[in-house]
Structure formats: structure tokens, C-alpha cells
Amino acid sequence: MVRISGPTVSFRGNVASPSRLPWVTLNGWRYLRQPEAKFYVTATPENAALAAAEAFSYGADAAIKTDDAGIDSLGQMIDFLRSVGESDLPALANLGYIDDGSPESGEFMNLLVRRNLLFKMVSQPDPSLAVNVKIGEPLYPRSEASNPKLLTEKVRAVVTDPKRLIRVYGTDVVIGRLLGNDGSDRLYLINYGGSRHPVPGLRVRVLGEFRWQHAVQFGPGSVPLQDVTVRDGATEFTIPQLGLFALVDLKR
Known about the structure:
Layout: E1 3-5, E2 8-10, H1 28-33, E3 38-42, H2 48-57, E4 61-65, H3 68-84, E5 95-97, H4 103-114, E6 119-121, E7 131-133, H5 148-159, E8 166-169, E9 174-180, E10 184-191, E11 199-207, E12 212-217, E13 221-223, E14 226-231, E15 234-242, E16 245-251
Parallel strand pairs: 3-4, 5-6, 5-7
Antiparallel strand pairs: 1-2, 2-4, 8-11, 9-10, 10-16, 11-15, 12-13, 12-16, 14-15
């Protein structure tokens, strides 16, 4: 449910110290860490719409506050999100993450999100996943927790790029979130620099061969995907120009 009241939008989101890409706060890992929590997000006018798209992508219960300069773009994003509707597909993950609640663990999760290494929270190793991660295990020793970039690269090496659920090429400001089942997937793409710079020619790879694809984008609406290839167990496509937020529905 979306409730709008003055400059505050309750979007179906505990405020902590921010983690940043070049221009904005990245909250995806917080939403994953506390899926039952209610969040309160204060957004600058240029990032208000982005905050709504992010909360929507992660299914977060977030109240988003901005000032009068941001309320129009926020309202437009809310209208767009209402038009595409929430999906009941489950979130997909390459790995399980066992969180010990420490700041180091939080920063590790933050970097996994930023590197598009999809994970889900687990309390113990999930045998259905090939990779389960916890700081303090032999491959991810606590002595290396001060270098989460190193730990993240270890995770990537264990998962391997060919088996990653999604890969986003040529940019470090676009974060993906993937939902799906055996027959269809929905991919959310958030451009955290979108309020300043669209990403031209965004190339994306999704694990799985999907013969039907349909993309819509905040602002332009329906988006024709270019250079689509479906082979070798994966689907690749190019979005001619990614603004703030897009979603791609895929069916086998």
C-alpha cells in the first residue's frame, strides 16, 4: 500500500549511517538485513524518486520524506510503480549470507549489493545454495573483515561469473534485483546516478534462457531491448539508455 501525506510518503522503510555510491545513499543491504523493519528515509529532491524505486525493488516498508522540490518527482515515481504493480515472485539469490550483526558484516553486505552479487539472509547454511557466507569462516576470516572488498572478490570467485544470476556491464552505479520462478523472472535495474547521468547502452546478462522479454522504464515507458541474445544458458540484452529505474519481465 502507498500512502501519501504532504512531503512524506509512506511507501510500504531505522535509519543508520549512510553507505554511498557517488551521489546517493544505498539502502538495499539494510532492507535485506531487516526485512520486517519499518524504515524512515530522508531524501534530497533529486533522489526522492530513486528512494521510492529502491524501496519498491526490495519490498521494503519505507516512509520517504522529501521537501517541496522533490514531491513532484516522488509522486511521479509512485504513480509509475503503481502502474507496474508489485510482483509476488520470490527474490532469487546466488548465495546465503549469515549475518553476525557487526558493522563489518554490514559493510560486507553493502559491497555484495554494489557488486550485484545477489544474496539472501539465512540463519544457517542453506543446502539449496552453492555458496553460504559468514565472516569468521576459513575463507572469510575475521582478520580480513577490515578489507570487505577483498572478501567480496573472494565471493565472486567462488560463485564464478558464468553462474551469477545477473551481470551488469560497464558501470558501477546500476544495481539489479532479481525475482523469479521456474517460468519467469522480473529484473529491477536502479541507476543510482540517474538523477544526474543516464547510462547509455547498458548491457545486462541474466542467467537462464528467456525467449520473451519486455522492458519498461520510469519516464519513457516501454523500452525496446537491443542486441538480444539467448544462448549458452543465459539471456543478454542492451537497454539503449537507462535513466533512473527500469524493470524487465522475462519468460522462458
